[in-house]
Each structure stands twice: as C-alpha cells, then as structure tokens.
Amino acid sequence: MPGRAAAAVVDVFVYVVVLNLFVEYLPSVLSETFTLSLLTAVLLKGVLELVVLAKNKVKTRFREAASPLGKVGAALLLWLVMFGSKFLVLETVDLAFGSRVSLGGFFSVSALIVVLMVARGLVRRLLDSYDSAR
User: Fold this and answer.
1) What is the pTM of this model?
2) What does 12-59 look like in DSSP terms, one character per residue?
3) Distance between CA atoms of 95 and 77, rounded to whole angstroms?
4) pLDDT one-digit tens code per residue, 37-56
5) SS3 state at 76
6) Are 12 and 116 in contact (CB under 8 A)?
7) HSE-up of residue 40 (Cα within 13 Å, Cβ side)
8) What is the dihedral of CA 36, 53, 121, 114, to 10 degrees?
9) Cys-Cys crosslink for 15: which of 36, 41, 53, 69, Cβ 3.0 to 4.6 Å?
C-alpha cells in the first residue's frame, strides 16, 4: 500500500461499503443518509484504530509478562478491551449522530466490526499483491 494516508482512505471506503451492506440487510442497523454513513465510517476508522492500538499494547504486555499472574491479568485486560470496544463504538456513534445512525446492539455491532476488519485486511492484501505484481 502506498502510504498511511492512502491506506486510511481505502479503509474508509471499505467501511462505507460494509456499513451500507449492513444497513441494507440488517434492520437494526440504520443510517438516514449516505453522508451519515460516510461520516460514521470515518468515525469508525478513528475508534477502531484506537482499539487496535490498545489491543496491540495489551498483547505486548501479555507476551512480556513473566509470571502466570501477569499473564492472567493481561489476558483479562485483553478481553476487557475487546469486549468494551463494542460499547465504545455504540456510545461514540450515539453521541455523534443520535438516533440518525444506529448500529443495532452488541451482537450486530460485533458482527459489523469483525466484517469491517476482515474486509479491510482482504482489500489491503489485494492491493499489496497488486503493488508487488507491478
């Protein structure tokens, strides 16, 4: 991928597509307009980058933990980051857009986040293989 800015733009485009597919096929996921979907995708990009950063820090802490108690503590912290991130996403979207955008509940936002991250990874891999083939 050419650079961080280009990767971020591609991520937002992927997020817009995935989010709008969820809006179309899951009744609990709503966005009043395309503009709100685009803004939600940008917001999701920011929030998920923070979550990935926190997750990576906790994973490093887990790897570096010397005692079993340290490993258990880091594992619990990792679970808390992964579990709590869903509520962070829901609350952030609610604060930003109110009832104009809804990502459903815990399970629909969990599915949305998993699909967003998988789609992002697949598109990045596809673009990297295109770049290396040139």
Assistant:
1) 0.87
2) HHHHHHHHHHHHHH-TTEEESSHHHHHHHHHHHHHHHHHHHHHHHHHH
3) 25
4) 999 999 999 999 999 999 99
5) helix
6) no
7) 34
8) -60
9) 41
